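Is it possible to get an amino acid sequence alongside its tokenized fold?
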Amino acid sequence: MPEPLFSFAELVARVCPTLEGIDKWKAVRHLDNRPGVPDLVELFHLDREALEFYQAEQGKDIFGACDGIFSFLGLPGRRALFIGAYQVRGSRKATVLDPLTVPAALRGMYEAARRDEPDVVRYYYDLVRDPRFAALEMRVVVDWGPGALSWHQWALDKPVVELRDPNSLGPCPDYREVDVSLAKLAFLIRHEEANPSWRDRLSAVGGIYLLTDRARARLYVGQAGGETGFWGRWKAYAEQHTGNVAIDPAFTAGELRPESTTLSILEVVPRGASAKVLLDRLEVRWKERLCTRTAGYNRN
């Protein structure tokens, strides 16, 4: 863990020295691995209202004694990324909401909750974003401390260990772990300078990739070569103009949706004079293994 720059409490005092009742503000760290819950960092960037809807619903009266909350998203290890300050203006109780009133990105999670616990009473808070802390959003990373499982705490003296570009989604993972939605990819491309590790790692190599249409359970196997590797090829998918006779019509018809279509890496192939021959052979192998000619988008 890097040496702390200062504490989050000190940062709050610098940004808003007139904040009253600081002892009635909680720090909360959202980290949710339940089935159907989307990546929360990605959700913040792509659909902030959905994330705030998610945050406002709790199974217990977590925020009832608070004047406000400092909200964080859990990162690997003990780290947490600040996403905003919210004043608590009140709450109400209700059973699980009708999923049709829930943001689309959260609907799967809420449908499961309604099915599994149809009569559970939950708390719904009126949380109002505090603009005084907007300049810190998606920039401040803290060490949450050894009590990582305690996701809501009164303690604000957490060490600040990193200050990020506000449009950073964090470093690109290992090639085997890359599984990026087209919506997230489009964000990364728009904010390329804030996410250099994604650009650099994905343009350094080519190989065989897999497109997964999660809404329709269909696959497509393709290859990426040339000077910009996966990054250059995948830009075309983010822009929805790939030159592919099956993929582009699916975009036009609305069958392939950015939020439910992902790209992942099956094989990494270093760029070079003989790469094209190897790419062709590997692409055929993966098409046969995954049956993407008969049950997917591949046409040859």
